[in-house]
Each structure stands twice: as C-alpha cells, then as structure tokens.
Amino acid sequence: MVRLITHNLLACHAKGCTTNNFPLQFKDVSIELREAEFNADFLKGLLPRIEWKALVDAARQLGDTSLPLEQPEMVDDEFLKNLHHVLLEMHIEEGAMVCPNCSHVYAISNGIPNMLLSEHEIA
Question: If you write DSSP's letter for every residue of 37-86 in order, what string do you get?
Fold first, then answer.
C-alpha cells in the first residue's frame, strides 16, 4: 500500500538519477481514507526517522494541511493524531509518483507502487 509512511522512504533509482530524486511527487492520485489503530508510542519513535519537509509537502499535495511546516520539539495529542492520520490512514489507491529530477513515472495501481525498472533504466 502506498501510504505516506512508505512514500517517505521512496526515492527514484533509475540509472543516473542520483540527485534531487526524493521525494517523489504525486500525480493524478485517488485517495482512500482507512481508519487505523492509534499508537502514540509508535509515532513518537518514528518521528526522528521521518523526512519532515517531504512528509508535509506530500500531505499538502494530497490536500491535507494539518501538519505544521516545521517539526515541533514538543508533541501533544492533537499533533500525534494529525500525524497518525497523515502517515497511516491516507492510502493512495491509484495514480503515479514522479521523480522531480528525471521525471520517471512510478505507477500506483490497486494501492501498490510499481518500483520496478526496465532493463535499460537499471543502474
């Protein structure tokens, strides 16, 4: 499934694409919201590993503006619930992710991103 928790880890890996290849940009996506169990401790442990600007930008591409532009030093329940929603409840079902550097398109179908490359695209 493409959720923003996954998207925050994905970069373009096409041959020769080594700079400005993260984060991938969403294009023509359809989103499904699915409730997920809230776990504050999990979210707090995940926070140091998140590329914050990439997450906020991706959420805004998908129409969610609940996260602050800067990662807060002190987190409260409202912040954690917004983070939970953005990371775990927003599912990208269809569409594509596009590399900002080489414009390679990674299709998303039935919630699954196709990150495979053709033979000529492999580094």
Answer: ---HHHHHHHGGGS-HHHHHHHHHHTT---S-SS--SS--HHHHHHHHII
Distance between CA atoms of residues 123 and 57, nearest Å: 28
* Interval 57-80: pLDDT, tens: 999 999 999 999 999 999 999 999
Angle at 121 between CA 95 and CA 119, to 5 degrees: 105
User: Could you give the CA distance from residue 20 to residue 99 in angstroms, rounded to a whole number?
Assistant: 8
Q: Quick one: pLDDT band at residue 123, thresholds 50, 70, 90?
A: low
Q: Which CATH class is domain 2-121?
A: mainly beta
- What's the whole-model pTM score? 0.91
Q: Cα 46 from chain centroid?
A: 14
Locate the domains of the chain by residue range: 2-121
Residue with tokens 């550097």: 101
